[in-house]
Amino acid sequence: MNNSDIQLEEKEDSRLSFLQEKQGELAQLVEAINRVEANEDWRKLKDLFLNGVVDKLERQLRDEASKVEVSLPKIYRLQGQIEWAKKYSDLKKISNQKRLEIENLKKQTK
User: What are the boundaries of each domain within the chain?
Assistant: First the structure.
């Protein structure tokens, strides 16, 4: 009996179960994101708070860039904060990214 065949089968089974578990978690995440995004309270929060944060950070970045002595660490920090704010304020975009991850997992399990 060849023990290497048994070990390969066990590894494939554990990988398959891991991918299926990850796929289930992502599906739950997408459903939760879609429910939050459809909520009227989220729209209010986004309009009143998150959109204002992006505008404020962009204004700070322009002000810092127009100074005579530019502080590169501050500019880099502001750029990172802007990217973070844009990324997490658009739930539809996050949902679509997670759906793509689910599709990739499905392809890997086949």
Answer: 3-109
Helices 3-38/91-109 angle, 10° precision: 160
Q: At what angle do helices 51-65 and 72-89 cross, to 10 degrees?
A: 160
How far is it, in rounded angstroms, from Cα 23 to Cα 101? 8
> Does the structure show a pLDDT above 60 at 5?
no
Neighbours of 44 (CB within 10 A): 10
7-40: pLDDT as tens digits: 656 666 778 888 889 999 999 999 999 999 999 9
Query: For residue 65, which of 51, 50, 77, 75 has the smallest C-alpha distance?
Result: 75
Question: What's 66's DSSP letter?
Answer: T
Burial tier of 74 (Cβ tally within 10 Å: 0-12, 13-18, 19+): middle
